[in-house]
Write a structure and sequence with these properties.
2 copies of one chain form a homodimer. The first copy, chain A, has 10 helices and 11 strands. The first copy, chain A, is of the alpha+beta class. Chain A has a 6-stranded mixed sheet with strand order 7-9-6-10-8-11. In chain A, α4 packs across α5 and α6 packs antiparallel against α10. At the A-B interface, β1, β2, α2, β3 and β4 of A face β1, β2, α2, β3 and β4 of B.
C-alpha cells in the first residue's frame, strides 16, 4: 500500500468521472454511470445470471498486492461463477470501500486492471458505489451474464453415471497462497512465480463454460476446494462421487510440490482458490465435452464419476480413500 | 454492538443455511442460495434495472443502531434507486463483511429486518457473499428490478418547461442524523423520535415510482441532498432549474427545526439521506402526476420548474437566491 496521502484522492464525483466512467464508456446500459442504475435489455431467449462475491484486503488478497491484480482477481472470481453456469458475461456493478491509505496511484493501477480484463472478457462496468471506510479495502462485485433459457449448468443437475470433468490444473491457487506467505522454499524460482501468479490472477473459464451449455449437466467453479465444491454438487444433486487422485491434472509446479511433500495433497484437494470448472455429463457426451474444450482452448480432464449415494470418495494411487482434515476454505 | 463472542457465529455454510436461505425460500431464481448465482427470466417487454449501494458502519449508520434497522436501511436505499427509475423490484444480492464483534443475536435481528422488508416490498434475496472482515460491518447490496422497455425515468430526460415534483417531506433524514448525534435538543421528544426514525428507516417510494412510469420524464432519488441531486438531473439533461424554498414540503418536526434555527435550511436542502423522489414532467401531465401519487398513497408537491440554461436557483421567501456552503454529501 502506498504511503498515506502520497497522492490524495479527488472528490468522489470527480473520481468517478475520471477513473470509473471510462470503464462504462460506449455502453448504453451503464448510462455513463450517471444514473445510479443500469438498464439492460435481454434477448427474449435468454435468462439473466447474477452472482456476487466480495474480496477484502487481508482475507482474499494482501493489501500490498499490485492494485491491477487485486482488481482483476475481484472481477475474475465473479466471472468464474458465471462461467460455471455457462453464462456469457455482460458486465458488473462494483461497490468498493476505500481506506484512507488509498491514493490516486492505486486507483489508476486498479482501474487499469479492470480495463484490461473488461477488454479480455468483453464486459463493461454498469454501476456501483464508491465509499470511504475505516477498515480494509473491500471490493464487492455483482456480475451479470446471460444464458440460453433453461440451459444453465446447475449444481443440482448431476446424475449417477455422469463423468466428472475438471478444467485446467488443480491446486495452483492454494499453493500460490503458500508461496505468497513465504512457503514452498524448495521449489524453483519459476515454479514459485507460476503458482503466485495463479493465486493472484485466476483464469475464469468463461469460454469453456459457454461452450459446455447444452452438453454438460452440472457445473460449479472450484473456489472452496475440489473436495468441498464437489460435495456441493453431490449434496444439491442427491448423489455421490468417486475420484482417483492420480487422475487430477496438476501443473508441473504443483506436481513438484506434492512430490517433495505429499502432505501438500491436502492443499491441492481442499485449499481452494482454483477457479477451475467441475462439470458432469453422461458418458456418451465425452466426445462433445472434449470438442467444446478444444474450441475453448481450455484443457479438460476426466477425473471421476458420479455415483448413487451421498459419499464423495477420493482414492489415492493404491485405491485407499484419502481423508481430508478440512472440507474447504471457511471464513469462520 | 453486542459484546464479542456473546453468541458466536456458526460456520459459514450453516449461517447461510440457517439465516439466509429462508430469505430465498420459494423463489426459483435464487436456487436456494446454493448455486453461487441466481437465474432470472424477464418478460420480453421488460428491461432489467440494476443498482448497487454499500453501507458501512460509522459512515452510513452507527454500529450500535438496531440490527434490523441497519438491514432495512441497506435494502431501502437500493430500493429507492429502483423507485427513481420507475422499476418494479425483483430481488437483491447482498455481500456483507462481518467483524468479529457480530454474534448470532445480531444476525438474527438483521435477517429479521431483511425478512420484514422483503415482505413489504415483495422481493427476495437472490444471492450474495458472506465474509469476515477486520474492519467495520459492511453491507453491499445490488438490487434488481424491471421496467417496461424504454420507459425508465432517467436523469437526462428533463426538458425546459417541465414541472419539478418532490415526494414526501424534505430534510427529515439529515435532521434525524443530527438527532442521532445528540443535536436539536430544542425539539420535542416525539419530533426527535420522528426524525431519528426517518434517518434510520427511509421510505423508498417504490409504488410512486412505478405509478409514474410513462407520466414523468426524469427521475432521481434524493440521497446526496435536494440541491445536489437536482444538479445531477440538470447536468445530465443539460438544463437549469428554479425552486422556491417556501414550496418545499416539510414535516412538522423539520418545520419546527428550521423555525427555531434558520441555519438548518442548509441541512434540509443539502443534507441528503431523504430517499424521496424528484421527478419532472410537462405541465399538462400535472393531473396524471397527482392521480399517480394518490394511487400510490404518497404525498407529492410541485416545487419548481426546469428552465433553459445550467443553473439550479433556489430562492427564499423574499425571492433572494439561497447559497449553499456545500453541494451535498461527499465521502471524501
Amino acid at each position: 500500500m502506498p504511503p498515506k496521502n502520497k497522492s490524495p484522492l479527488p472528490p468522489e464525483f470527480e473520481l468517478i468521472a475520471r477513473y470509473l466512467a471510462p470503464l462504462a464508456a460506449g455502453v448504453p446500459a451503464a448510462l455513463g454511470l450517471k444514473d445510479d442504475a443500469a438498464i439492460l435489455s435481454l434477448h427474449p431467449d435468454r435468462e439473466l445470471v447474477a452472482t456476487a462475491d466480495a474480496l477484502i484486503a487481508g482475507v482474499h488478497f494482501f493489501a500490498d498486492d499490485p492494485p491491477d491484480l487485486i482488481a482483476r482477481k475481484a472481477l475474475r472470481v465473479n466471472l468464474s461463477d458465471l462461467a460455471a453456469k455457462g453464462a456469457t458475461p455482460i458486465g458488473y456493478l462494483m461497490c468498493w470501500a476505500l481506506p484512507e491509505s488509498i491514493d490516486t496511484n492505486f486507483i489508476e493501477a486498479f482501474t487499469e486492471g479492470l480495463r484490461a480484463d473488461q477488454a479480455e472478457f468483453g464486459i463493461a462496468m454498469l454501476g456501483g458505489d464508491t465509499t470511504a471506510t475505516s477498515g480494509p479495502l473491500t471490493i464487492a462485485i455483482t456480475a451479470l451474464g446471460e444464458v440460453p433459457r433453461g440451459r444453465a449448468m446447475l449444481r443440482g443437475a448431476a446424475r449417477p453415471g455422469d463423468e466428472i470433468y475438471l478444467s485446467g490444473t488443480l491446486g495452483d491457487g492454494a499453493l500460490g497462497l503458500s508461496v505468497a506467505r513465504g512457503g514452498l522454499p524448495g521449489l524453483s524460482g519459476s515454479e514459485r512465480a507460476f503458482l503466485l501468479q495463479r493465486y493472484r490472477v485466476p483464469q475464469p473459464r468463461v469460454q469453456l463454460g459457454m461452450a459446455l451449455v447444452g452438453i454438460a449437466r452440472a457445473g460449479i467453479d472450484v473456489s472452496d476446494g475440489l473436495a468441498a465444491d464437489l460435495q456441493h454438487i453431490c449434496e444439491t444433486s442427491g448423489v455421490g462421487a468417486r475420484l482417483e487422485r492420480s487422475r487430477l491434472p496438476l501443473s508441473p509446479a504443483a506436481a513438484a510440490a506434492v512430490q517433495a511433500d505429499t502432505g501438500l495433497w491436502e492443499t491441492v484437494l481442499a485449499g481452494g482458490d482454483d477457479y477451475e470448472l467441475i462439470v458432469t455429463a453422461p458418458p456418451e457426451r465425452g466426445a462433445q465435452i472434449k470438442a467444446a474444450a478444444r474450441a475453448a482452448k481450455t484443457p479438460i480432464a476426466r477425473i471421476g464419476r458420479i455415483e448413487p449415494g451421498a459419499i464423495v470418495a477420493i482414492t489415492d494411487e493404491a485405491g485407499t480413500p484419502v481423508s481430508l482434515a478440512r472440507g474447504g476454505y471457511r471464513h469462520f
